[in-house]
Amino acid sequence: MSVLLFFVVAPLAGAFLIALAGRKIKYSAGFCAGLISLGLSILSFYAAGLISRQQVLVFRIGGWTAPLGISLVGDGLSALMLVVVNVISFLVVVYATSYMKLYTDKWNFYALFMLMLSGLNGIIISGDLFNLYIFLEVASLSGYALVAFGTEPEDLEAAFKYLIMGALASIFILLGIGFIYSYTSTLNMADIQMVLSVKPKGAVIGFVSVLFLAGFGLKAALVPFHAWLPDAHSSAPTPVSAILSGIFIKTVGIYCLARVFFNIVGVSEGLLSVLMVLGALSMVAGAFLAIGQSDIKRMFAYSSISQVGYIILALGIATPLAIFGGLFHLFNHAVGKSLLFLSAGSIERSSGSRDLLKISGLGEKLPVTGYASLMGSLSISGIPPLGGFWSKAIIILAAIQSGHGVYAVIAALVSVVTLVYYFKFYNRVFFGLPVFLTEKIQEASFAMKFSMIALAFVALFAGILLLPAFRPLFENAANCLSSGSGYAASISGVLP
Amino acid sequence: MMLYFLCFILFSVGLYCVLRKRNVIKIIIGLGIIEYAVNLFIVLTGYRTHGRAPIFSKGQEIMNMVDPLPQAMVLTSIVIGLGVVVIAVSLAIRMYEKYGTFDITQFRRLKG
Questions:
Q1: Which of A126, A164, A172 should we substitute to test contact with B (largest number of B Cβ atoms within 10 Å)?
Q2: b/e map of A5-31 (b: 16 or more CB within 10 Å)?
Q3: Which residues contact A153 (CB under 8 A, 6 or more apart)?
Q4: Are strands A57-60 and A71-74 parallel, antiparallel or unpaired?
Q5: By Cβ atoms counted within 10 A, which residue in A183, A191, A397, B11 is the most buried?
Q6: DSSP for A118-162?
């Protein structure tokens, strides 16, 4: 019984149980979801420790050996993603137990949430390309339903837009998988890599690269494909926005993109420069569009596009240092952006609005939310002691080192623009004359405060993770990507 | 080769339907058409002329068989497609309740 199996099976079973019994037993849904995600976040640290000792964990479903059967694979990159996804999911579930009180049919929320968690974990540990697609669809389908959870007209509209874009992206990915299968006659990721390394890379691989870039680019909301993201992420209920912006686009978009290109299909010079251009475009466009927004959650959603641009740029530079920086930025952005969305939910809940023009001077009434969103803003805009500074500094340094001075300048300038719109947000909401829409403004409840404070501490002290004691988590992950074909070699070393 | 070409035409018809039609239901149908085109393509990749089903039985030697894996993949992908259509249609019903129309240009509470 491998530890990897639990990451898929436990939330799946939880979703089933919650859907079955959630309506009948009060509080059982939230309790069950919280328990499962707490268990998984503890288990993810155990799995990360196990992977750092054994390099790679392989679990063969049903005992079938690799090219024939489906295998679950945990390597360094999976370990990092598992920790990020499960810990943030746990904190968001804790937040949701208090936040979702005003919604009806809460058990459906928890059931869908667990289904999405199971899909995300499945994507991360899947060792089989078609299985990756299935988990991707499980996560995406529950994502569409969760965006529409409020069933207001805006939610439905955003969810429908998201569904059409997401379904098109999935179809591109499936078509790419079909081409890969017809070319290599295998679906196991390591096996595909080994077959491709001896076969000549013809036009098929170029076409497949384009299909995967379009598919995963749509899921990650890179700039030409970004139109759905601000609607979907700002209309969804706040815990869902935090998950979607914090970890969903990173797992479904960036992780898959990195895994497929660096470890399976292989990267070429042309592809890397395309990634760099897309990353820079996303960074610039996202940042400038964010300045003009007056809706807090919409501003954060555009900011997500911009920060995802940094990670893609780092992957495009593709030196080991850049990939390390990109993955560290992925971690920092996951923490910072979910923190910001959670505090946006708290602001909306207590003041009744999330329009920057309507609310101001909440600083005295909401001290915890204020400090939490300060930490999130500072971390993402890259102010020195916080986590975001280190990751951006590493990315810029790597860009200069590898001779991409232009991209380094763009990254530094976008960082200034980021600071501008976070300053605008913080200044409007927490300083200034107190203007209240409702009479009694209350600080968030205990559960909401707990999640925000925990994430704020992680955002504040993320720089510590660069110390030698913790660095292996990121270094192993970066090695998985930068070694490229090493993925197949490390897996086949374990497989009998 | 002709079959692949027809499959591509089917794909293009679906894509046109998704991109150009204004009616929500037609867009969902378009998505379905694209999915069928991709499924058809994947089944075709496993097809062998005069091949037979790869069912192993005693006393028979299968010389030329159809690849069963794409068929299994397509079966899974059809089920996923069903899930997508169910969510899309339920969203369309809810939107019709709220807006009173299926015309996508009338849904403009959100912009950009």
A1: A164
A2: ebbbebbbebbebbbeebeeeeebbbe
A3: B95, B98, B99, B107, B109
A4: antiparallel
A5: A191
A6: HHHHHHHHB-BHHHHHHHHHHHHHHHHHHHGGG--HHHHHHHHHH
**Complex ipTM value:** 0.94
The mean pLDDT value for A155-167 works out to 91
- Where does residue A65 fall: left (phi above 0), alpha (psi -120 to 50 degrees), or beta otherwise? beta
Query: A132 pLDDT band (50/70/90 cuts)?
Result: very high
Q: Quick one: pLDDT at residue B64? A: 81
Quick: pLDDT tens for A189-210: 888 888 888 888 788 888 999 9
Q: How far apart are the first and last CA of chain A?
A: 17
The model's pTM is 0.93
With an 8 Å Cβ cutoff, are A163 and B80 in contact?
Answer: no
What is the Rg, in whole angstroms, of the alpha carbon atoms belonging to chain B? Answer: 20
Q: Which residues of A touch B77 (CB under 8 A)?
A: 174
* Structure confidence by residue, pLDDT tens digits, A333-344: 999 999 999 999
Q: What is the pLDDT, as a whole number, of residue A123?
A: 94
CA distance, residue A76 to nearest chain B CA (Å): 29
Q: How many CB atoms lie within 10 A of CB A351?
A: 24
Chains A, B: CB pairs < 8 Å: 87
How many CB atoms neighbour CB A41 within 10 A? Answer: 20
Strand partners for A57: A74
Cβ–Cβ contacts within 10 Å for residue A51, how many? 24
Q: Look-up: residue for tokens 């069928």?
A: B36
Question: Residues B104, B22: contact at Cβ < 8 Å?
Answer: yes
Q: Any idea which residue has 């208090």 for tokens?
A: A98
- Tell me the three state secondary structure of residue A427: helix
Q: Do the beta carbons of residue A48 and residue A79 sit within 8 Å?
A: yes
